[in-house]
Each structure stands twice: as structure tokens, then as C-alpha cells.
TrEMBL record:
Coiled coil: none annotated. Its main location: nucleus. This is DNA mismatch repair protein S5 domain-containing protein. It is found in: Nucleus. The lineage of its organism: Eukaryota, Fungi, Dikarya, Ascomycota, Saccharomycotina. Gene3D superfamilies: 3.30.230.10, Histidine kinase-like ATPase, C-terminal domain. Belongs to the DNA mismatch repair MutL/HexB family. It comes from the Eukaryota. One of its GO terms (biological process) is meiotic mismatch repair. Keywords: DNA damage, DNA repair, Nucleus. The keyword Hydrolase does not apply. InterPro entries: DNA_mismatch_repair_CS, DNA_mismatch_S5_2-like, HATPase_C_sf, Mlh1_C, MutL/Mlh/PMS, MutL/Mlh/Pms-like, Ribosomal_Su5_D2-typ_SF, Ribsml_uS5_D2-typ_fold_subgr.
Length: 742
């Protein structure tokens, strides 16, 4: 006891109250604000967004301890402000305490850079739009270490933080591994990338060429989520929008939440932004998870992103050193409003589920993102990599896999029609004709304008039969690609871009082709994710070949034509047009004359070569047609109708309309022809016709699987008009609910 009392007397004598040294105070304050590299990153990131940056690049070394660099293209810092930049409580964002009631920016205390400078080596390079050069300044312990030096640089600010916690060894030892600290930084960046509109974000490790995160500034919210968390999340989202509620100070409430098809055991932590500030709000999180528990299987977790804008006067942002928490008025009432809205949206989904085919328009599909989703998705989903296998959510076919049938190149089957084609290097007739064949136009309905096809029929009173053999051979022509600068072509390309439906384009880019359903109605089936779709491949081909024609304008290959009956190059236009019903000789001559007058343009832009009309219009021959897609020959039975529509449906008086019209006719020409159904058990049908029908179907199936649909995956920008030609007919979770197995 005497020993203890003596010790107490000694402690009392040494415990006089005195003011702490300024350096100690600053280190303590810095330790409260900057706990780990991710806190430093968050403070600098918010400064960049406050400065109006449209792109933020982050470079990390050893988890942000050795190097943490952030580059933005914001407004920059004035040179006169650089001396006090890292002093505590210096800010441009508020003047009086009352300004906190209307604060609209992330930063407001003026402590972030000051705190960083006390525990790290800090360098700032900045340039405003009015400066002639950038200025480089270094800081230590809140003070500038040397005068600002002029240097080369772009508008904006570069902040370089090196050797974080170099003077606080205990804090340095408490940090986790470099990989874990980097994962924390990436997590915060991804959350801001999802929320912040019109700002692009990128992040990579020092010395690596591949980005861990890369989000375009113009990307939509759906695209940002897909780029970061992958299509498993973005495919199963619904929008959450609430009207403002002035009673509780709610100005705006929006977000993205997962539907009932998305449920995993180890979910992604909920993302909450209140007044555009990343915060954790446990009461709101628990309330929303409780709502989802009534709909999802036990233990499953939803995806929740929510942005809540509350009147600034109702929010206290100054309650936590790192600003990760805020307090707001009417908290219980606001949480109840949001929970009720989520409950309402989920009930709509649950009550509207049915087992009949649904239209594609009703579903939220994935989007095209030119960013690299794989890298950031891998990092962000590391926590959910070990997931229990769910048979009703298992995609058993990878759209990127190659089918074994693609390695089996069967010879082109013989098909009954009016022309014949073969590869000159190894002749194998593709289309054959006999003396009892004539070309007859098949009239379609008005809704199928341009989708008519010319088919061979047996007739006793047939007219003069075109017996010709069309050969094509692939030859590499050494010529440079022509750059087309026509305003009309650029305008047509812009129209295609503007009409693109990004979600539908994503479906086709990630699809798996299954097969033909009905060759008479031109229907095929494809799979995307867990869904099965029925598509009109005629409409798809029409759009595909139009876009190929527009992309390769004036750079087409050529398919040369040879008339073996007359042993001449090309086919007479008059002979082809004679196959069109009710076409007078006067109209026929007008069509030929119109095409002949435009022969130079047709040859230069479209590789449609016309010869022989110098002496007589009746002698005009078509020597070649354009090659739009290698390994695919257009249906040659449609050639007469192609010539006819070129002469009657194209507006030759307007440049844009003319070029567009010819491209549309080429696209119609290239659409696979309709194959009429032939009953193989009908004894009245000859064996020859039955065999030809089988050969045509087999050839069409091969071409669609190995040539056309792979090209659709690579090249098609699906327009909004194609939505009506794509119908969802089944999905795996729905089938499991009906049959409990597949």
C-alpha cells in the first residue's frame, strides 16, 4: 500500500495541465481524419468532384501507403492560394457556421489536406484555365516547404501523397496488407463511380497496364453498375423513384434495387448517398433488408443503391471526423417512407410474375459499355466468389464458347433455283436449275414490303428460262481503304448510333444461337443468360446488312457474274426484269435507263458493275454485285426483284435518300429467302422437291449458325425498332417454379 501511494504521489506531481505542442495537436487531429489510405483517397476524391472534374484518375502503390496519386481535370487551385492550401481550417466552401445549413459540397472543414500533410509527404501540381503553366508545390506539417515552381501540366490538379504514416509507426503497423487496403480504396471509388453522374473514374496499381476500374463519364447508372459489379447484378435491377415529400424535407429519392431474381448469400453492402455524400445508415439498411426478407429465400441478400436528397437545413453533416455518418430530421418517418416504397415495388414484381411468354420491353436488360467490366468486377466480387450452386440460376451455356459444329465445314448443298453459284477454286454448285424452272415473284403482305422472294416453280407453259452459272472467288486486292467523307453517309451513321437500343445490343452481343424454329416465318431462337428468346432473323439480317453496307460503304468486295448459256460476263437486265409480273416494256426500259445513267456511282460506291449499254439499253448487263459478308452468298433468286426495286423504290433526286435507298435494297437482297414448308410424308410431292427442301433448310441452318449470327454478335447495333421482333418465351427460374427441375 505504501508503494502504491508513493506511485500515486509521483504521478500526481507529473500530471500538471499544460497546452499540447502544436505538432502533437495536428498529428492527433490528422489521426482522427486519416485512419487509413482509403480515408485520404476519399477526401481528395471529394475535392476533385467539388472542383467540377469530369474525369478522375487514381494511381496506387502498395495499398496507397507508398503512393496515392489522384489526377483530375477540375477548376484547379489559384497560385495565390497555394501557400495556405494545407493549413488547417482553410476552405473555399463556407464562411460562417450557418453556411452548414445549406452546404452543397463534400468538403467544408478545410482539414483534409492539412491532415495529410502532417502524416505524409504531399506534393500538389495545379493549373487553372487562366494560368499559362502549372505550379508545383510541396508541403510538410501543414506548411509549404518551398516556393511554387512553374511546370508543364493540364488544367486541373494532381495530388501526390507519398509515404503515408511515415512518422506514426504504430498506425503504419496497424494497417492491413497492401491487397486489402487497395480493395478498400477500390470499393470507395466504385461507389462514387456509380453515384456521380458525368464524371469518369479510373484506378490502377502502380506498374500495371490494366485498369482495375474504368468508367466512362457519359455512362448511365445502369452501365456503371454493370461495369463495376457485372451483368449478374445489372441484369436484375429495377429503378426506385419517389416523389418529393416536403413535410419530411425529402427533395429527391432515387436508386437501383435488385429484383426477386437476384439473391446471393454474401451480398454487396448497401450503397447509401445522403445529399450526395457516401454514408452508412444502419437503421435504413436494416429496414430495407427486413422488407426483402419477406420476398427472398432465407439468408439471401439484395443489391441496394439509394440516393437520398434532403433539405440541407434538416441534415447535420458535422457529426463524424471522416463524415461517414450524418444525422437528419424525421429519420424514422423517412426510413418508413422508403421502406414502404420498396415494399410496393417488390409486390408489383411478385404479383405480376406469370409463366406465359413475356415481351422483351418489360425487362431491364444489360447495357453496352465500352469500359472493361471484367477487371473491376473481379475485384468487387471477390467477397462473393464462393456461392452455393443454384440450379435455377445456373447458366449452362457460355456464349463465348465455340460449338463443335463450327469446326465441321460441310460442302454447300444443292438448292433448286434459277442461278448457280460455286467457289471457282473448287467448283461445287450451290444453286442449280433445270429446263422446267422459271422465276416467279412471290407477293408478300404490305407489312412484309421488301421481304418478298423469288422462288423456282415447275410450270408447263414457262417462258424463256435463265440458265446461268454464277461463280464467285475470293481474291485479295491490294488497295487502301477509302475514307468516305460524304455528309449524307455521316448523317446516316449518326442516325444508326442515335437509334441504337443499348440493352438490346447487349443481348445480341452476349447471346448463344440455338437454331431455326420456323424457316417459313423466319423465326429462330437464341439464349441470353437465363432467358430464351424468339427472334425474327429476317428483320435482324435486314438491319445487319444495312449497317454492314453503311460501314463498308465504297469498300465492298465484288461477286462476278458469268452467263454460261451465252458464255458472256454478266446477265442481261432486260432478261432479269422480264421475270417480274405485269411489268411493261416501257417501264422496263425506264428502269434500265435509270440504272445505266447512274452506273459510275453504282460501281464506285456499291460495286454494282453495269456494262454494254453504250449502243442499246437492251444490251445492259450486270457484271457483278457487292460482297457484303464473306462465306455468305445472297439469295440469287431475288436478283430480278432487287433490280426492279432499285429502279422503282429509290429516290434518285436526293443524295441522302438515294444512298440510303440503295443500301436498304441491298439489305433486302441479302436477307435469306423464305423456305416454303414441304410435308415430307405427302406422297403427292415428288422426291426431288422433298430433297431440295431438306437441302435448303440444312444450308440455311449452317449459314445462320456459322456465318450470320456470329456476325450479328460482333457487329449489330440493335435499333429500338427491333424490340418488336424479339420476344422472351421462357426463363430458367420460371421453369423451375413450374416443373421444379429442368
Amino acid at each position: 500500500m505504501i508503494f502504491l501511494n508513493h506511485n500515486r504521489i509521483l504521478m500526481s506531481a507529473a500530471s500538471r495541465i499544460k497546452a499540447l505542442d502544436a505538432s502533437v495537436v495536428n498529428k492527433i487531429a490528422a489521426g482522427e481524419i486519416i485512419i487509413s489510405p482509403v480515408n485520404a483517397l476519399k477526401e481528395m476524391l471529394e475535392n476533385s468532384i467539388d472542383a467540377g472534374a469530369t474525369h478522375v484518375d487514381v494511381l496506387i502503390k502498395e495499398g496507397g501507403v507508398r503512393l496515392l496519386q489522384i489526377v483530375d481535370n477540375g477548376s484547379g487551385i489559384m497560385k495565390d492560394d497555394l501557400p495556405i492550401l494545407c493549413e488547417r481550417f482553410t476552405t473555399s466552401k463556407l464562411t460562417t457556421f450557418e453556411d452548414l445549413n445549406k452546404i452543397q459540397t463534400y468538403g467544408f472543414r478545410g482539414e483534409a489536406l492539412a491532415s495529410i500533410s502532417h502524416i505524409a509527404k504531399l506534393t500538389v501540381i495545379t493549373k487553372t484555365k487562366d494560368d499559362t503553366c502549372a505550379w508545383k508545390t510541396s508541403y510538410k506539417n501543414g506548411k509549404i516547404t518551398s516556393d511554387s515552381k512553374p511546370t508543364a501540366g493540364k488544367d486541373g490538379t494532381v495530388i501526390i501523397v507519398e509515404d503515408l504514416f511515415y512518422n506514426i509507426p504504430s498506425r503504419l503497423r496497424s494497417l492491413r496488407s497492401s491487397a486489402e487496403e487497395f480493395a478498400k480504396i477500390l470499393d470507395v471509388l466504385c461507389r462514387y463511380a456509380i453515384h456521380t453522374d458525368n464524371v469518369g473514374f479510373s484506378c490502377k496499381k502502380f506498374g500495371e497496364s490494366q485498369f482495375s476500374l474504368n468508367v466512362r463519364s457519359e455512362a448511365t447508372r445502369q452501365e456503371r453498375i454493370r461495369s463495376i459489379f457485372g451483368s449478374q447484378v445489372s441484369n436484375n435491377l429495377i429503378s426506385l423513384d419517389m416523389q418529393d415529400n416536403r413535410e419530411y424535407g425529402i427533395v429527391e429519392n432515387s436508386g437501383k434495387i435488385s429484383n426477386l431474381n437476384y439473391n446471393i448469400k454474401k451480398g454487396i453492402p448497401a450503397i447509401f448517398f445522403i445529399n450526395h455524400r457516401l454514408v452508412s445508415c444502419d437503421p435504413l439498411r436494416r429496414s430495407l433488408f427486413q422488407v426483402y426478407s419477406n420476398f427472398l429465400p432465407k439468408g439471401s441478400k439484395p443489391f441496394i443503391y439509394l440516393s437520398l436528397v434532403i433539405a440541407p437545413a434538416n441534415v447535420d453533416v458535422n457529426v463524424h471526423p471522416t463524415k461517414r455518418e450524418v444525422r437528419f430530421l424525421h429519420e424514422d418517418e423517412i426510413i418508413e417512407c422508403i421502406s414502404n416504397k420498396v415494399q410496393e415495388e417488390l409486390q408489383k414484381i411478385a404479383s405480376s410474375k406469370s409463366f406465359k411468354p413475356g415481351s422483351l420491353v418489360t425487362n431491364k436488360l444489360i447495357s453496352i459499355d465500352n469500359a472493361s467490366p471484367g477487371t473491376s468486377s473481379t475485384s468487387m466480387n471477390s467477397a462473393i466468389s464462393k456461392i452455393k450452386r443454384q440450379e435455377n440460376k445456373l447458366i449452362r451455356t457460355d456464349s463465348s464458347q465455340t460449338k463443335i459444329t463450327n469446326f465441321i465445314r460441310s460442302s454447300q448443298p444443292k438448292i433448286h433455283a434459277s442461278f448457280s453459284t460455286s467457289i471457282r477454286t473448287k467448283p461445287k454448285p450451290l444453286l442449280e436449275s433445270d429446263e422446267n424452272t422459271e422465276i416467279v415473284p412471290r407477293r408478300g403482305t404490305p407489312e412484309e414490303e421488301g421481304h418478298e422472294t423469288l422462288v423456282g416453280q415447275n410450270c408447263s407453259n414457262n417462258s424463256r428460262i435463265i440458265k446461268s452459272l454464277l461463280h464467285n472467288t475470293y481474291e485479295v486486292v491490294q488497295r487502301e481503304r477509302i475514307d468516305v467523307n460524304l455528309t449524307s453517309i455521316k448523317s446516316l451513321k449518326e442516325t444508326v448510333d442515335n437509334e441504337t437500343h443499348k440493352e438490346l445490343t447487349g443481348v445480341f452481343a452476349d447471346m448463344t444461337y440455338i437454331g431455326i424454329v420456323d424457316e417459313t416465318r423466319r423465326l429462330a431462337s437464341i439464349q441470353h443468360g437465363l432467358k430464351l428468346f424468339l427472334v425474327d432473323y429476317g428483320s435482324l439480317c435486314n438491319e445487319l446488312f444495312y449497317q454492314i453496307g453503311l460501314t463498308d460503304f465504297a469498300n465492298f468486295g465484288k461477286i462476278y457474274i458469268h452467263d454460261e448459256l451465252e458464255n458472256k460476263e454478266g446477265l442481261l437486265l432486260s432478261s432479269l426484269l422480264s421475270r417480274i409480273d405485269n411489268l411493261s416494256s416501257t417501264n422496263m426500259d425506264e428502269i434500265i435507263k435509270r440504272l445505266w445513267n447512274m452506273k459510275e456511282m453504282l460501281d464506285e460506291y456499291y460495286s454494282i458493275e453495269l456494262k454494254g449499254g453504250d449502243d442499246s439499253i437492251q444490251d445492259v448487263r450486270i457484271n457483278c454485285v457487292p460482297l457484303l459478308l464473306k462465306d455468305y452468298m445472297p439469295p440469287l433468286s431475288k436478283l430480278p426483284f432487287f433490280i426492279y426495286r432499285m429502279g422503282t423504290k429509290v429516290n434518285w433526286g436526293s443524295e441522302k435518300d438515294c444512298l440510303d435507298g440503295i443500301l436498304k435494297q441491298l439489305a433486302l437482297f441479302y436477307i435469306p429467302e423464305i423456305i416454303e414448308h414441304v410435308d415430307q410424308d405427302d406422297v403427292s410431292v415428288t422426291q426431288e422437291i422433298r430433297t431440295q427442301a431438306v437441302s435448303k433448310t440444312e444450308y440455311l441452318s449452317t449459314v445462320l449458325e456459322q456465318v450470320i449470327f456470329p456476325t450479328i454478335k460482333r457487329r449489330l447495333l440493335a435499333p429500338k425498332g427491333l424490340l418488336k421482333d424479339v420476344i422472351e418465351i421462357a426463363n430458367l427460374p420460371g421453369l423451375y417454379k413450374v416443373f421444379e427441375r429442368c
